[in-house]
Design goal:
25% of the residues lie in helices and 23% in strands. The chain is α/β, with parallel strands linked by helices. 10% of the residues are buried.
Length: 113
């Protein structure tokens, strides 16, 4: 007798589900049972967890970042600081370190930057 699949309380399909596996792979869908992610995979794989009472949400290509807990980070701002050349002062504990970082940045800058 084949094992039956767990029916999910909620299924998200048709999106980009960023996982936290060792490859940070991106899947299409995920199923949630209770307060846990019970399945992640292709739309077809995860649809097998849909039952009569399962709430299904079509992500329409949107991205899901499971596991993000509010640490009060502004994701868009944080990402832009990583790509715009801004200095990361998050771990700085002294003025002299700030001066050193600014001097290094100025030394590597092109005229007009």
């Amino acid at each position: 007798m084949a094992a039956s699949k767990t029916l999910a309380d909620m299924v998200l399909i048709g999106g980009h589900v960023v996982t936290v596996d060792s490859n940070f792979s991106v899947q299409q869908a995920l199923a949630i049972t209770g307060d846990r992610i019970s399945s992640v995979g292709t739309d077809e794989e995860v649809r097998s967890h849909i039952g009569a009472d399962t709430k299904v949400i079509d992500l329409a290509g949107k991205t899901v970042l499971p596991g993000i807990i509010d640490t009060h980070i502004h994701a868009a701002w944080f990402g832009s600081t990583r790509t715009s050349g801004q200095l990361d002062l998050g771990e700085i504990t002294s003025i002299s370190k700030i001066v050193e970082l600014v001097a290094d940045k100025v030394e590597g800058a092109k005229p007009g930057q």
